[in-house]
Amino acid sequence: MLRPTVMKSLRWILISLVIASPIFHPPSVVADDAGLITTPAIASPPSFQQDVLPVLTRFGCNQGACHGKLAGQNGFRLSLRGYAPDWDYDSITHEFFGRRIDRADPSNSILVTKPAGVSPHGGGRLFDADGDAARVLTEWIKAGTPGIVAEEAVVQSLKILPGNQTMRPGETLQLTVHATYSDGRVRDVTWLAQFFSNDSSVLEVDPTGLVTCLRAGEAVIRVHFQGEVAVVAITLPFDQSVDPQQFVERRGFIDEHVFNKLVALNIPPSADAGDSTFLRRAYLDTIGTLPTPEEVKVFLADSSANKRAAEIERLLERPEYVDYWTLVLCDLLQNRKERDHDVRGSKGVRAMQAWVREQVANNRPWNEIARDVITATGDSVTQPQIGYYIVSIGEYRKVEDSDVVASVAQAFLGTRIGCAKCHNHPLERYTQDDYYHFAAFFSRVNFQRQESHKGATSLVVVNEEETRAGAQIEETRKRIAELQSSISDKQGDELTNLQKQLDDRNRELENQQRQLTEIQARPPRVRQPRTNAQLAAQPLDRSPTLFAPGADPRLSLAAWMTDPKNENFSGNMVNRLWRHFFAAGLVEPVDDLRVSNPPTNRELWKALNEEFVTHNYDLKHMMRLILNSRTYQLSSATLAANETESRFYSHYYARRLPAEVLLDAISLSTQVPDSFPGYPLGMKAVQLPDSTVASPFLSMFGRSDRVTACACERSGDVTLPQLLHLQCGDGLNQKFDDAEGRLKQIVKEFPDNLQATEHVFLSTLSRLPTDKEEEAVMAAFSDSDNRDEVFRDLFWALLNTKEFAFNH
Questions:
Q1: C-alpha dihedral, 373 to 379 to 381 to 387, nearest 10°
Q2: Exposure winner among 27, 556, 628, 634, fewest CB in 10 A?
Q3: Do both 87 and 209 map to the same domain?
């Protein structure tokens, strides 16, 4: 009988022979449709990063619902979607003495048997024991569990075959995914890719990439593989007849692209909006206020052919335009007091609002406004735009721990990278390293903070190492000065000793100055907390960036960001403008631009971006184009053939007015202003500089708190408390009872009931009553002997209509 030690030695000899033996026959090659050489789907031997991790990702092992959650699952933790391969390798091969790997019998490894359903598994059976996934894991173990290879080729791009398609409901389509690697290889990764539908009511896609068309519309299938994303759009035209004459009138490239999309989908546009509807819509969207009854009458009486275009020009030059768009930009730039430790006070918030207001009044190009904010330095009095950093960095001493990285990306680039602070982005190619590379642009932002009553807080550009080195230099210079002052009256040994100390200090100063120069010459960088690597500043597109010694890194960031080729910068503002006027962005959510979330009309998106850049980022120019388009001036009343459409702009999408605009509309209609603590009576809600001004109405109706960069902070939802507030609250009744209010004035000034009724309609809905409405109101007067009460009820009823509370 062999001794145990001998048996153990023989066992490992056998294992080594298995490891050394060939696993697959030499791979064959296949040519794809472009003539490129495609490597087989399974490599020999399998790579941990290119084969094993993709298997774990494809079958959900490292997802948030399983072992990818923060605490892992049943003692086994993997990084979320494989963002930390080094961690995963250690967890799989070494944790718990390597119990998950059976090198003697690889197919019996826990890593294989549990997901294959051979052993009990809380997640159930994920793949077949004799399928490709089990084969990859088994052969990897047979090969000796090879680990991470330095400089291993990585996926650079994905290609989906076939490309964009036009199909019909009920049809199916099998997609194929090819991955191109940095070494030039092209590989079919269809079985390892993950497939998702952006609208599962239009398209379904199964895990193998088989697409099923469900109903008419347009949707995108997105594919994920090893951090790369690709999409393919599938259009399913509606089965209905549309008169081509409805698309003939096109007033510019906006209508051209919108109507081309509607034609492709067989969706007819709604009729054009009437004059009163257009006027009210344009006023509310452009200057945030209702037209007065007199303005409505003048516009309706105007018979000139270009009166709408002329009215648009007048609106863009009105002071209310400056008020409203100052509010919009202050939301975007998060102009508020700090949450934790306010060093600006209300004065600083008002100063930044005034700065923004000046930019809007001068129609300053958006790229210049953005550059001034991104590169802001100085104190909060003379350079109030540093307030953006005061609130986004807050009390944090390290910018990479603050909100500024995610805020800048989301506000100026429409890119949500906050999740990459902890793990790779789940829907985009941004990695955790990308987040900290981007954070390094702000590594030299520091504050000299003071309480607001003691003076201004200043933003200075210097990193911590420079600060410490500078402090050491100053301390050394101070000691040298002290030695020089004491050496003059010394002699003998004492003089020699002091001279030696002075020489030592001078050499120390030279070394410290040299170290400071070296520090300043280093590229800006921050520490990546998972790997402890010092990552240099780098834009999100990973393009190389050079920095002058000691220069403010944000200057390079601003240059990259506002480069005309940076579609995310221009597209971010274009998309926000489009959503403002149309209630739905070309990309939704409006601040979530990514490859996996493409625009609903790519051609229109490109044309708008080019227009914005070509015209020097002129906000008014873009607004003028939008307002004059036929698309914007379509009715919100739908047709049977377009009533379910909500993404392609076949009609105007009605939505509830923003909180400040609605409150101001009520005040203007009733001619009774609201009062706000600390501000004079008559201050409009859209003019308030601070989002923390106490107002139950504004809070209830969803004003932005400006705490984060997310556009979702401003809510347009309709809630039961809002309805109850308008219908049952004291606010309207107090305005109706006001002796100087419009209701009392109408009753006095218009003895004729019909004229008074028309004025009430013009004051609230910005239109004259219909015949049916007139008849109903006149009947109410006939049935009542209290004229004042009828007008009060009429006013109350109109202010509580959807037509009043919504722009339509």
A1: 40
A2: 27
A3: no
Shared-domain flag, residues 142 and 220: no
Peptide bond into 162 cis (omega under 30): yes
Same domain, 145 and 160: no
Measuring CA to CA, how many Å separate 35 from each of 29, 38, 186, 197, 282?
12, 9, 11, 29, 54
Same domain (yes/no): 450, 386: yes
Count of beta carbons in the 10 Å neighbourhood of residue 558:
20
Note whether residue 348 is domain-resident: yes
CA angle 781, 761, 789 (to 5 degrees): 35
Domain membership of residue 452 (yes or no) is: yes
Query: How far are the Cα atoms of 288, 338, 789 from residue 768, in angstroms, in the given order?
Result: 21, 47, 21
- CA proximity to 388, closest of 430, 318, 427, 442: 442
pLDDT computed for residue 40 by the predictor: 55
As a whole number of angstroms, the distance between CA 668 and CA 687 comes to: 14
CB 386 within 8 A of CB 459: yes
Which mean pLDDT values do the consecutive 10-residue runs of the chain (808 residues) have? 40 36 35 49 83 93 85 85 88 88 92 91 90 93 92 94 96 97 94 96 97 97 94 96 92 97 96 98 99 98 97 99 98 85 76 97 99 96 94 77 93 94 84 94 87 79 83 91 81 82 90 88 88 94 88 95 97 98 97 94 98 99 99 98 95 98 98 94 96 94 94 94 91 90 92 96 98 96 92 96 98
Cis peptide before 40 (omega within 30 of 0): no
Closest CA to 555 of 399, 706, 683, 375: 375
User: What pLDDT sits at residue 2?
Assistant: 40
SS3 100: coil
Q: How far apart are the first and last CA of the chain?
A: 92
Backbone dihedral angles phi then psi of residue 211, each to the nearest 5 degrees = -95, 135
Return all residues near 570 (Cβ < 8 A) that are at least 6 apart: 564, 609, 612, 613, 617
- Could you tell me where the DSSP H helices lie in 333-443? 345-361, 366-374, 387-393, 404-413, 432-439
Shared domain check, 457 and 333: yes
Q: Give yes or no: residues 145 and 166 share one domain.
A: no
78-113 tens-digit pLDDT: 988 888 899 889 999 988 888 899 999 999 999 999
- Residue 356 CB burial class (10 angstroms; 0-12, 13-18, ≥19): buried
Q: Which of 236, 267, 298 is the last residue of a domain?
A: 236
Q: What CA–CA distances, in Å, run from 422 to 8, 69, 542, 717?
A: 44, 12, 19, 31
What pLDDT is stored for residue 25 in this prediction? 32
Query: CA 456 to CA 384: how far, in whole Å?
Result: 10
Using DSSP, state whether 186 is helix, strand or coil: strand
In a domain, 429, yes or no: yes
In a domain, 642, yes or no: no
Length of the chain: 808
- Name the packing angle between helices 730-737 and 787-799 (round to 10°): 140
CATH number of the CATH domain containing 206: 2.60.40.1080
Same domain, yes or no: 672 and 794:
yes
Please answer whether residues 450 and 343 qualify as being in contact, where contact means their C-beta atoms are separated by less than 8 angstroms.
yes
Domain that holds residue 108: 56-149
User: Of 236, 268, 286, which residue is a domain's last?
Assistant: 236
Domain count, the chain: 4
Amino acid at 665: A
